[in-house]
Design a protein that fits this description.
CATH topology: minor pseudopilin epsh fold
Low-confidence stretches: none
Structural class: alpha+beta
CATH architecture: 3-Layer(bab) Sandwich
Shape: rod-shaped
Number of strands: 8
Radius of gyration: 28 Å
Strand content: 25-35%
CATH superfamily: minor pseudopilin epsh domain
Largest sheet: 4 strands, antiparallel
Helix content: 25-40%
Strand order of the largest sheet: 3-2-1-5
Number of helices: 1
Mean pLDDT: 89
Distance between the termini: 91 Å
Order of helices and strands: HEEEEEEEE
Number of domains: 1
CATH class: Alpha Beta
Length: about 150
């Protein structure tokens, strides 16, 4: 008579209860991290637009020195900036990739014109530019001489 052996193998894989508990824990973890990730994305969008305006201000000063004067026009509706040299539009830039970042100007104006003379110095009173998206905000102060301070 031949003897047959039955090998016992423990079951492999995960039970349904284990899978559901892991998915619930992952869901709870994501639910707590998503608001923080959204705030961080909003913050990065606001800072990107602020730095874009800083770059435009520096370019306006350079153009003023090389061409005898320039003007940077900032609009709030929609948020955009235009660089003018001798009444010619040199550059027109929408601020923000999707237009969700807001721009607020000093004294709640809709448009601000920053003039730069041949020496690259500003010829306008100081301006405070506030950028926002969601709960995030950043400010930029442009002095009367054209100096930029980030806040």
């Amino acid at each position: 008579m031949q003897e047959t052996r039955v090998l016992f193998r423990p079951p492999s894989g995960f039970t349904m209860v284990e899978m559901i508990s892991v998915l619930v824990l992952l869901g709870l973890g994501l639910a707590t991290l998503l608001p923080a990730a959204r705030r961080q994305l909003d913050r990065m969008s606001v800072l990107a637009v602020r730095e874009e305006v800083v770059g435009l201000l520096h370019r306006a000063r350079q153009e003023a020195i090389s061409r005898g004067g320039s003007e940077l026009v900032l609009n709030t509706q929609p948020p955009s900036a235009g660089l003018l040299v001798s009444s010619d539009t040199l550059l027109l830039v929408p601020l923000g990739e999707d237009g969700s970042v807001t721009l607020l100007l000093s004294r709640n104006r809709v448009e601000a014109r920053l003039h730069f003379g041949p020496l690259g110095l500003g010829r306008v009173s100081s301006q405070t530019l506030r950028f926002g998206k969601g709960e995030e905000e950043a400010s930029l102060v442009v002095s009367a001489l054209g100096r930029v301070v980030r806040r």
